Amino acid sequence: MPVEFKSATERYKLTDQVDKYVFFDDIFNSKGETTQDPLAGIWFRIEKGPPIGPGLHGYDESGVVYEGTVTLKDETGMEKKLGPGDSFFIHRGSKVLFSSDDCGVCFKCAARPKGKL
């Protein structure tokens, strides 16, 4: 398989909208519908608004905050505000809410097929 590349400007072209203040775009993904261990590379932006989450995470996910701030709160009540350069890991089976006081942009990798938020 060839190597894929994307420009830094891709994070400003997010096309999928989860809510009026949450946007994402899978810019990389494993090829094929039956890939055994799928992996997606995702640009994610969250603007100021109430906490939101996918419910139960059905996959492992890791990310790095590139711009702004992103707050994560898990099912135990632990809450952490992250800034540029900070990273996070969400374990499969966790319940995590995302929010931002301003606007946060992350690059995330998730063990999931393309487009399954």
From TrEMBL:
Classification via InterPro entries: EutQ (IPR010424), RmlC-like_jellyroll (IPR014710), RmlC_Cupin_sf (IPR011051)
Coiled coil region boundaries: none
Name of this chain's protein: (S)-ureidoglycine aminohydrolase cupin domain-containing protein
Lineage per the UniProt record: Eukaryota, Fungi, Dikarya, Ascomycota, Pezizomycotina
